[in-house]
Write a structure and sequence with these properties.
The complex is a heterodimer. By secondary structure, chain A is mainly β. Chain A has strands at 4-7, 10-13, 19-25, 31-37, 43-50, 56-57, 68-72, 75-80, 89-96, 107-109, 113-117. Classes of the chains: A mainly beta, B mainly beta.
Chain lengths: 118, 116
């Protein structure tokens, strides 16, 4: 299993500002995933972050709004820019457990970062 | 587009009742299947997973799930629920892409409330 630490665990931000969320994993991983869980809803994949390459964004998510850094195999950051109340959500960092591509491992999740935008 | 659907948004059961939560996915290629649970105030935890082999898989806490390829389904079951099973349940599917990475898509979730 993997232990994932996210910071901050929660924050309240003003409209128009930005928040950067950090994700630290206790082991080296190739891919890290960023999800959003809006109140009462399921998880939506924002992007996949590979070390050494640009993040791959899902439909509806763009780099200008959600820039991601992946400087090494144990760390990533997600920035939510130009905040609006609609960005209020829980943001989750996730990594894949051991397993080859034919039998991919399950995802492990951090505790999440709860963002409230006023 | 890949998608995952869950049959029920909210299920209410009495203790000792049997549970079945439906999950269907849209993709006909190679997939891995998961059920996750999120207890109130806690992070997501894996209940069980299917990669290949026996389509009936057993997970933690007495849960099991059956993969029916012809129906693109992966339904979760438990013969007798407990109050402590009250939680949000998410079906998830890993889709293998032609590109260098794959991704896990989550269903909308089913909220289970067990009445003592």
């Amino acid at each position: 299993s993997a232990v994932i630490s996210q910071k901050p665990s929660r924050d309240i931000c003003q409209r128009g500002t930005s928040l950067t969320i950090q994700c630290q994993v206790d082991s080296q991983v190739t891919m890290m995933f960023w999800y959003r869980q809006q109140p009462g809803q399921s998880l939506t994949l924002i992007a996949t972050a590979n070390q050494g390459s640009e993040a791959t964004y899902e439909s509806g998510f763009v780099i200008d709004k959600f820039p991601i850094s992946r400087p090494n195999l144990t760390f990533s950051t997600l920035t939510v820019s130009n905040l609006s109340p609609e960005d209020s959500s829980i943001y989750l960092c996730s990594v894949e457990g051991p397993g080859d591509r034919g039998g991919g491992g399950e995802l492990f999740f951090g505790e999440g970062s709860r963002l409230t935008v006023l | 587009a890949q998608s995952v659907s869950q049959h029920n948004h909210h299920v209410i059961l009495s203790e000792a009742a049997s549970l079945e939560l439906g999950c269907n996915y849209s993709y006909g290629g190679t997939v891995n299947l998961f059920w996750y649970v999120q207890y109130p105030g806690q992070h997501l935890q894996l209940l069980l997973k299917y990669f290949s082999g026996d389509p009936l898989v057993k997970g933690i806490k007495g849960f099991e799930a059956e993969f029916i390829k012809s129906k693109f389904s992966f339904n979760l079951r438990k013969p007798s629920v407990q109050w402590s099973d009250t939680a949000e349940y998410f079906c998830a599917v890993r889709y293998f892409e032609e590109t260098s990475y794959d991704k896990v898509i989550f269903g909308p979730g089913t909220s289970l409330s067990v009445i003592p």
